[in-house]
Specification:
With about 290 residues, the chain is α/β, with parallel strands linked by helices. It has helices spanning about 1-15, 70-85, 110-120, 125, 140-150, 190-195, 205-210, 235-245, 275-285; strands at about 20-25, 40-45, 55-60, 90-95, 130-140, 175, 220-225, 250-255. About 30% of the residues lie in helices and about 15% in strands. Helix 2 (about 70-85) links the parallel strand 3 (about 55-60) and strand 4 (about 90-95). The longest helix is centred in the middle third of the chain and has 15 residues, at about 110-120. The two termini are about 20 Å apart. Residues about 1-10 and about 10-15 have low confidence and may be disordered.
């Protein structure tokens, strides 16, 4: 069954095309750094063929150490998976940095993911999406970004002049694949930390962006996947987050595979690792997101 699914996904991914590219901000002023950015932040919309008017939607944050984006492996291909299972998907092109610190640091990336969530919910009726079934997914550093959306929550302000600011940013669920979680140097991914916070961040920012410390009973349900032999982003990241979720009685599932290393994506060639995509879909169905 899984082999057939993976072959199908591989074929579909070759022809998958976003229906729409949606830029996150009405103007590039104050958003784009001239000489560094090649584009303003956007998300590509991949609608499913599900005729329902209350679809589940997933906002996908590809990984890349907050320096680049694994767009196809950790963006387009997961979008195809969700489409084939009746869910709409959006792949987020958030702002990035480099080792010379010429780009963007926090909170720019966080602002991008929360703005994207608000845009999806603001247009949910147009797209046949249920705003209460709108979640976030992230891989590696994108997993950290998704975890910030899940733990740093902004309530909608009904009196805000900007209509988007009237919309709550709390995702309905979070799916985290080999995520960077902590900024604590004991087991942080140094590259992601440096690109997000700079090379000498204030300790208060290190604590504030270590998302295992931000979990509360308001954190949405979370699905976590990691490999035991991941040397780049060690599995303690997912374990610490899962333990925090359980402390606060948040629904969660954690899968740690005995192999895979870092960045395995959909793992189409591995008969063990390639089980996680359907486990994820089944988990969403059990939570009522379908």
């Amino acid at each position: 069954m899984y082999k057939t699914l993976i072959l199908s996904l591989m074929m579909i991914s070759l022809v998958a095309q976003a229906q729409q590219r949606i830029f996150l901000y009405p103007s590039e002023e104050g958003i784009v750094i001239k000489g560094f950015d090649t584009t303003a932040p956007y998300m590509d919309y991949y609608p499913s063929k599900n005729p329902s008017r209350s679809k589940t939607a997933v906002l996908i944050c590809p990984g890349g150490g907050y320096q680049n984006l694994a767009w196809d492996k950790e963006g387009v291909k997961p979008a195809v998976l969700f489409n084939e299972n009746g869910m709409d998907a959006f792949v987020l092109r958030y702002r990035l940095n480099n080792f010379r610190q010429e780009g963007h640091r926090y909170p720019d990336q966080y602002n991008d993911v929360t703005t994207a969530i608000r845009i999806i919910r603001s247009r949910a009726a147009e797209w046949g999406i249920d705003p209460d079934k709108t979640g976030v997914m992230g891989f590696s550093a994108g997993g950290h970004l998704a975890s910030t959306a899940a733990t740093i929550l902004q309530k909608g302000d009904p009196n805000a002049t900007d209509p988007l600011k009237r919309i709550d940013t709390r995702p309905s669920f979070a799916i985290l694949l080999y995520p960077v979680i902590t900024m604590d140097t004991s087991f942080a991914h140094r590259g992601s930390r440096n690109n997000l916070l700079g090379t000498n961040p204030d300790e208060s920012m290190v604590a504030a962006l270590s998302t295992e410390k931000r979990v509360t009973d308001q954190t949405p349900p979370v699905f976590l996947v990691h490999a035991d032999d991941d040397k780049a982003v060690v599995p303690q990241n997912s374990i610490a987050f899962y333990e925090a979720l359980k402390k606060h009685k948040v629904k969660a599932s954690l899968f740690i595979y005995d192999h895979g290393g870092h960045g395995f994506g959909m793992a189409p060639q591995d008969p063990v690792l390639n089980q996680w995509p359907m486990q994820c879909v089944q988990w969403l169905q059990r939570q009522g997101f379908q």
